[in-house]
Structure formats: structure tokens, C-alpha cells
């Protein structure tokens, strides 16, 4: 096993899509967000499995991702682009039959000038202040935009992972104020909003992270596992230091294993000192700093040297590791390196 192995369970991805789909009424479509290469897990494998499960609407961030997805999925599914219609994207949007989610007046103008007959959606800003037309802008261009028949109107919640946050309710009210009475499909919620209840569902929900097993979908089936090979094991004396900056000092004679995986493989330097990995059934603590391609663990308490260790499994999810690194599961997942051998469970090879 020369490199680490990233196990990706496509059956679990499909089960998560079904579970999220069940949270909303049957009249509400459940899309799938596959930006950033399917949250790092491989859009070429994840998207066809989701399509097979019944997903008919997909979201990418960029038009380039949308073009790749169109090649993967063929002509049927609708592909929405969250960056909207950026300068330079016109021909790709047309060729790949993408639906740009227009997010500014500039984009609206660009779309009408270059692809006047082609479908588009509208993004409204209800308080996140990231993308979308603000209330006054929407008031100014709504008639014009609605006259051209947008296929979807959406907004995005900033605090949906905190069910008690006042911002959820405020954004919901703003969205309703801007869109109530329009005869156009509406979408407000990603994974977090999907778990907030039917008032947040409208005509379409757009989960991403929940499909891949991450919070805030608490009932998610875990999707990823990560095993790393051990390169070498050796003894050190009490008082010896381990790793860059000599940040860890052995209190007693210890045995150390050096493992093939570091921050270039998506294991943040900030994981140490709180990372634990499993050698079979036994937890081992990372000691010394995480380096670019390696980390070092204390195996003094093991009966035998391990050949590999497990960083992610159903009990240590991306959110567990994220907690140790002071970040979120999204960031751990999307940074899992390209160096790993990927083993997919649950579909035929593409
Ligand atoms: C990324 C994203 C999603 C999916 O979000 P998750 O939290 O991963 O479910 C949905 N909508 C928009 C606008 C996004 O940027």
C-alpha cells in the first residue's frame, strides 16, 4: 500500500440523498450540489450515482464544472451554476445547456444581451451579503427579469447550521417578501435549511454536505474512510523530541510510527495535538507536528507495530477530525488530497 486509501461509499451518498429527500414533501424537488469535484470525492463517480438514485437537478459553482458535469451526465439533468453568468462563460453556458443563477444586475444584462432565449435563474440576497440581488435591486429589475421567465428563484441561508439563529427567520421573511405570489419555483435551503422544517423547503432544496455524510445533517450515513500506511517504527528515549520545532518531548521511553500522510494530503497542521488515529481497535495520539507528507504517532502502548492506521471511519467522521483541527467538515472533506488511492463502493466503474 504505497499511498493512503480513501474509501468512498457511493451507497451511503445515495442513502443520504434519499434521507434528505424524505425530509421534504414529494412536491419539493431534492437537487444535489456537486461543486468542488463533488466536495472532493469525485464528481465523475458521485454525480452518476445520484442521478441513478433519482436526482434530476444538480448545482455546480462554476460554468467549467457545469460543462464537465454535462459530459458526465448527458443531456437530461438540469445543471444550475451558482456563479451565474460570468464574463467569458457565455459559450460554455450555451454549449453545455447550463442554467446560470444570475446574481447581479451586470449578469442579468450580460445574459439578456448574449443568450436572450436561454434559461436562467435568479439569486436574491436575503442577508448573507455574498451573492444575489438585494431587495432594492430586485424591486428595480423584477418586472424585466420575470418577463423573461426565470426557471428558479433562490436565496441562501447564512446560519442554517444553527437552528436557533434569528437570522434564519429573518432571511425566510425577506425571501417571502421578495417572492411571495410569483409563479416561479423557489429554493432557499441547502443541507442546514432542509433540516429546519417545511417552512424552509419551498419547491426545491439543494443539499451538498449532507449527501457526503457531514454536519449539519446529524442523521447522515458516513461516506468516507481514510487509511494511511505506516512507513517506519522506532524507539526513542525519554527526553527525545519529535518533529519540526521539537514541539513534543517523550516523557518516557516511547515507540513512534511515522505515517504517510500530512498537510499536503489534507490533514491540517492544526490537527496536532488533538488528532487520534486508530491502529486496529486501539487509538494512538499524533505527537510532534504534522509535516507536509508525514505525521508521527505514539504507538508505545501497542503489542505490535501497525502496518497502517485509520484516520477516518464511521466513528471518526470528517467532523470529528474537523473538531480536532478547529475547522469544519466541509474543509476537511474538500481538502482530502488527490494523492490517495480511491476505492469506491457501490457502483460499477465509470
Ligand atoms: C454550497 C451551496 C449549497 C450546498 O450547501 P451545503 O451546506 O453543503 O448543503 C447550496 N446552495 C448554495 C448557494 C451553496 O453555495
From TrEMBL:
Active site: 35, 244
Alphabetized InterPro entries for the sequence: Ala_racemase, Ala_racemase/Decarboxylase_C, Ala_racemase_C, Ala_racemase_N, Ala_racemase_pyridoxalP-BS, PLP-binding_barrel
Residue stretches in coiled coil: none
Extent of the signal sequence: none
Keywords: Isomerase, Pyridoxal phosphate
NCBIfam families cross-referenced by the UniProt entry: alr
Descriptive protein name: Alanine racemase
Gene name linked to the record: alr
Amino acid at each position: 500500500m504505497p499511498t493512503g486509501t480513501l474509501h468512498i461509499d457511493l451507497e451511503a451518498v445515495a442513502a443520504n440523498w434519499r434521507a434528505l429527500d424524505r425530509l421534504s414533501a414529494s412536491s419539493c424537488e431534492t437537487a444535489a450540489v456537486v461543486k468542488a469535484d463533488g466536495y472532493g470525492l469525485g464528481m465523475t463517480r458521485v454525480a452518476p450515482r445520484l442521478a441513478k438514485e433519482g436526482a434530476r437537478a444538480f448545482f455546480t459553482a462554476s460554468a467549467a464544472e457545469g460543462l464537465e458535469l454535462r459530459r458526465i451526465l448527458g443531456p437530461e439533468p438540469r445543471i444550475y451554476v451558482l456563479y451565474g453568468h460570468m464574463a467569458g462563460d457565455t459559450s460554455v453556458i450555451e454549449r453545455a445547456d447550463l442554467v446560470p443563477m444570475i446574481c447581479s444586475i451586470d449578469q442579468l444584462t450580460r445574459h439578456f444581451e448574449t443568450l436572450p432565449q436561454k434559461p436562467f435563474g435568479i439569486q436574491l440576497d436575503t442577508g448573507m451579503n455574498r451573492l444575489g440581488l438585494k431587495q432594492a435591486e430586485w424591486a428595480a429589475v423584477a418586472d424585466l427579469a420575470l418577463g423573461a421567465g426565470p426557471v428558479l428563484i433562490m436565496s441562501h441561508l447564512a446560519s442554517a447550521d444553527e437552528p436557533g439563529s434569528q437570522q434564519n427567520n429573518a432571511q425566510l421573511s425577506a425571501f417571502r417578501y421578495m417572492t411571495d405570489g410569483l409563479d416561479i419555483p423557489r429554493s432557499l435551503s441547502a443541507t442546514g435549511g432542509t433540516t429546519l422544517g417545511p417552512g424552509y423547503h419551498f419547491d426545491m432544496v439543494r443539499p451538498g454536505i449532507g449527501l457526503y455524510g457531514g454536519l449539519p445533517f446529524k442523521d447522515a450515513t458516513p461516506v468516507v474512510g481514510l487509511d494511511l500506511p505506516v512507513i517506519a517504527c522506532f524507539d526513542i528515549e525519554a527526553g527525545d523530541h519529535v518533529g519540526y520545532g521539537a514541539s513534543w518531548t517523550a516523557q518516557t521511553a516511547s515507540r513512534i510510527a511515522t505515517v504517510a500522510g500530512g498537510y499536503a494530503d489534507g490533514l491540517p497542521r492544526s490537527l496536532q495535538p488533538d488528532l487520534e488515529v486508530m491502529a486496529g481497535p486501539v487509538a494512538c495520539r499524533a505527537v510532534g507536528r504534522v509535516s507536509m507528507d508525514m505525521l508521527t504517532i505514539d504507538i508505545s502502548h501497542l503489542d505490535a507495530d501497525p502496518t497502517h492506521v485509520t484516520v477516518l471511519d464511521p466513528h471518526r467522521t470528517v467532523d470529528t477530525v474537523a473538531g480536532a483541527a478547529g475547522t469544519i467538515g466541509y474543509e476537511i472533506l474538500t481538502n482530502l488530497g488527490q494523492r490517495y488511492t480511491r476505492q469506491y463502493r457501490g457502483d460499477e466503474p465509470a
